[in-house]
């Protein structure tokens, strides 16, 4: 992913401190660990400190299709922010590492109580989703579009 800053860097300092103190904890990312599954409740999200995670979608009759691979400083998970708070994809660890795991309900409550923090979180997540949708579109065109197709066509 090409976002140059992490979610934590995008937050106002006082909001970042509250978020880390009240809604976050450091967790290991174990090799082959399944972090979440499409269709299940989205009650956490992560900022990857080290290691790598593949985000995938179910394909009927086939193995899950990898949408993207995330690594250091990447936000993992956005379904927690939007109703009905259900994962749209799945994710599993392909290289062990560490992450900061956030309690989604606690973060939503903090965002509701602090408008400045809420704006910063929503803006960062929206920018991340838009960037990833663009990247997914580009990959799909490369895989399934006519030869030589580009985003400018």
Label this structure with key terms.
globular; 153 residues; alpha+beta; Jelly Rolls; single chain; six-stranded antiparallel sheet; 33% helix
Structural summary, described in words:
There is one protein chain. By secondary structure, this protein is α+β, with helices and mostly antiparallel strands. The protein has a single domain (8-141), classed as Jelly Rolls (Sandwich). It has three helices and six strands, in the order αββββββαα. It has helices at 13-23, 104-113, 115-144, and strands at 24-29, 34-36, 44-57, 65-70, 75-76, 90-103. Strands 1, 2, 3, 4, 5 and 6 form a six-stranded antiparallel beta sheet that branches. β3 and β4 form a beta hairpin. α2 crosses α3 (115-144). It is globular, with a radius of gyration of 16 Å.
Gap between N and C termini = 23 Å
CATH superfamily: Jelly Rolls
Radius of gyration: 16 Å
- N-to-C order of helices and strands: HEEEEEEHH
**Strand tally, please?**
6
Overall structural domain count? 1
Helix content: 25-40%
> How many helical stretches?
3
């Amino acid at each position: 992913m090409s976002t140059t800053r992490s979610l934590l860097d995008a937050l106002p300092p006082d909001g970042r401190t509250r978020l880390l103190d009240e809604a976050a904890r450091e967790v290991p990312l174990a090799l082959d660990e399944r972090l979440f599954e499409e269709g299940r409740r989205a009650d956490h999200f992560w900022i990857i400190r080290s290691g790598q995670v593949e985000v995938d979608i179910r394909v009927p009759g086939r193995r899950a299709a990898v949408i993207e691979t995330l690594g250091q400083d990447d936000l993992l998970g956005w379904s927690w922010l939007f109703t009905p708070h259900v994962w749209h994809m799945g994710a599993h660890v392909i290289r062990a590492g560490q992450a900061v795991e956030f309690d989604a309900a606690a973060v939503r409550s903090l965002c509701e109580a602090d408008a400045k923090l809420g704006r910063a979180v929503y803006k960062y997540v929206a920018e991340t989703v838009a960037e990833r949708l663009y990247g997914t579109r580009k990959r799909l065109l490369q895989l399934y579009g006519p030869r030589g197709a580009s985003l400018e066509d």
